[in-house]
Amino acid sequence: MSRIIRVAGAQMGPTQKADSRDHTMARLLRLLEDAAAQGAKLVVFPELALTTFFPRWLIAGTELDGYFEHSMPNADVQPLFNRARALGIGFYLGYAEATPEGQHFNTAILVQPDGSILGQYRKVHLPGSVEPRPGALYQQLEKRYFQYGDLGFPAFRAGEDWHKAVTGMMICNDRRWPESWRMLGLQGVELVCLGYNSAAYDPNGGKTEDAVLRTFHSTLVAQANAYMNATWAVAVAKAGEEDGSGLIGGSCIVDPNGLVVAQAKTLGDEIIIADCDLDLCRQGKDKMFNFAAHRRPAHYAAITERAGVIEPS
Amino acid sequence: MSRIIRVAGAQMGPTQKADSRDHTMARLLRLLEDAAAQGAKLVVFPELALTTFFPRWLIAGTELDGYFEHSMPNADVQPLFNRARALGIGFYLGYAEATPEGQHFNTAILVQPDGSILGQYRKVHLPGSVEPRPGALYQQLEKRYFQYGDLGFPAFRAGEDWHKAVTGMMICNDRRWPESWRMLGLQGVELVCLGYNSAAYDPNGGKTEDAVLRTFHSTLVAQANAYMNATWAVAVAKAGEEDGSGLIGGSCIVDPNGLVVAQAKTLGDEIIIADCDLDLCRQGKDKMFNFAAHRRPAHYAAITERAGVIEPS
Fold first, then answer.
1. Cis peptide before B73 (omega within 30 of 0)
2. B115 DSSP assignment
3. In this predicted structure, what is the pLDDT of residue A205?
4. Closest alpha carbon to B264 in B248, B283, B278
5. Pick from A224, A291, A312: CB nearest B166
6. B172 in active site
7. Under 8 Å CB-to-CB from A166, ≥6 apart: which residues?
8. What's the domain count of chain B?
9. What is the Cα–Cα distance from B234 to B212, expressed in whole angstroms?
């Protein structure tokens, strides 16, 4: 019995500060309709898909709070849930989460075609800084606005609509950290969904990285980590110029060999599609990357014992 | 003060069972001379550079023992040590090691331009099987002939000839495991040397992998892991047809952005060269991959707690 899921990536062009919630939701709905019309059973939206990438601004109070969702779904987002269920398509959605207890996370959810929330993920690898960088035109203040994700890297067993796929989520910077992928790989993940907002320049203030190099990095880590964990991966950007600050595109769908099978060509709203045969994961999982047979955890101790570098003397 | 090392990869074409030790050593010496003539201060030879890839055969006794080095250097290999020291060039050499206690390892050493052995590494990620695969024309019996490496993944601080580079070694299959790279990355590695003998077909008996795909995998993992650990990497093949069994080439030198800066074009003896500026590692190590600031080991527990997969129910 075939285990093929038609998956869409819904790259989004920029969302300006001035864009209304309604305007943005209309774009999400158009992308959802387009993906469904092409037969997709899952559409992956970007990180922080409902707003501009607000961590580039030093803000506070009501202005900051306006970027957060206080429940999910909520009245603003309910039309997406309703339309997806009517069309029989599930989705991955990234958003800024404010909990009733006052915590703040950079969060994503996976919603199945029947409208049920399969799982939630809170971003573990927050980049940037707590304090603004003096003199910088754009900041990267994720460490200021969000707490570190407290859910680990859970994998979820989907229902029949997705052929009981073992699914996992990441958000943006997580994809550059092989530990994120391995944590999902150790749960047998077959399909990794991730959204991103990645600057088209060095967000840490250096001068050596441009949009071409950063798009290369983004694609490279999706390819290699998909291969090394024998999984499909769908990596989806919010792209283009948001209020003058550039974001890379390059949204892609990668197979368990690390081959790019679909990639966005623009920096705007754009659907990419692939038929993902989950059973293609078996070649890697059963042979080269048969973890039980070939991993040697006794020699990996430093990976969990410490965060930072200790150089040889 | 500039920290540029001119590094060579000395890809080797096939070494047949019938080839004499003298014949093979003459090839190594020619490659060493060529690399030194081009100004290299380090030349990386392949895994098991002194012999054919004998784990493809089911053998025992004297025949098997003949493939192992019982000391290093020994009379057969001393000419390489002597000539390298005279030329002021260091090298990485892979070989089959038999210890005085009767242990057997798939081993590599790094020798500095002054002739001193900077460090030794014993392959941790042994692929293949203990028992031969029935009916297979070629075996992959590394788990039969070698013990798992017992030295972990040590990094070594080189001397002035190599600008005090933090260096590390891997062997072949290790490169497909992000844990190998991360263990070196956590020691601040700036230059990873690795040799390989990788089949041009699926060594585990599948039908879906060919030489093109396997060369892509080999290059991909060097690129992505070099980037994710902000290090240079030099990956060097023994290539071509050994007694009818194909090995991929694709030897490459990769920079800390994951960009291939030199790659072999043949399946034969071939030198590739690059000037490796160790200070290019700082961009990654200080910013995106500042491990102390951004890694979250509390969420990586499964990586060291277990070897194999546990799927969600």
1. yes
2. S
3. 79
4. B248
5. A312
6. yes
7. A155, A156, A157, A158, A187, A188, A189, A190, A191, B311, B312
8. 1
9. 20
Give the pairing type, strands B245-247 and B191-196: unpaired
User: Does residue A66 register a pLDDT over 90?
Assistant: yes
pLDDT band at A208 (very low <50, low <70, confident <90, very high): confident
- Tell me how far apart the alpha carbons of residues A223 and A221 are, in angstroms, rounded to a whole number: 5
B103 in A contact zone (CB under 8 Å)? no
What CATH number should be reported for the domain holding residue A85?
Answer: 3.60.110.10
Each residue's pLDDT tens digit, B195-229: 999 999 988 878 889 999 999 999 999 999 999 99
Q: In chain A, positions 135-154, which contact chain B (CB-CB < 8 Å)? A: 148-149, 152-154
Q: Is A267 exposed, middle or buried (0-12, 13-18, 19+ CB in 10 A)?
A: buried
Shortest distance between the Cα of B287 and any Cα of chain A, in A, equals 6
- Domain residues for the domain of A104 are 4-288
Average pLDDT over residues A234-262: 98
Q: What is the pLDDT of residue B205?
A: 79
B216 chain-A contacts, CB cut-off 8 A: 257-259
Q: Is residue B313 situated within a structural domain?
A: no
Provide the shortest C-alpha distance from residue B45 to chain A (in Å): 24
Residue B208's pLDDT is 87
Q: Kindly state whether B82 is in contact with chain A, defined as any CB-CB distance less than 8 angstroms.
A: no
Q: How far is residue A33's CA from residue A91's CA, in Å, rounded to a whole number?
A: 12
> Are B303 and A179 in contact (CB < 8 Å)?
yes
Q: State whether B311 and A166 contact (CB < 8 Å).
A: yes
User: Mean pLDDT, chain A, as a whole number?
Assistant: 97
pLDDT confidence tier of residue B234, bands split at 50, 70 and 90: very high
Q: With a CB-CB cutoff of 8 Å, which residues 238-257 of chain B face chain A?
A: 257
pLDDT digits 0-9 by tens, A73-122: 999 999 999 999 999 999 999 999 999 999 999 999 999 999 999 999 99
Assigned domain for B79 exists: yes
Is B312–A152 a contact, with Cβ atoms under 8 angstroms apart? no
By residue count, chain B amounts to: 313
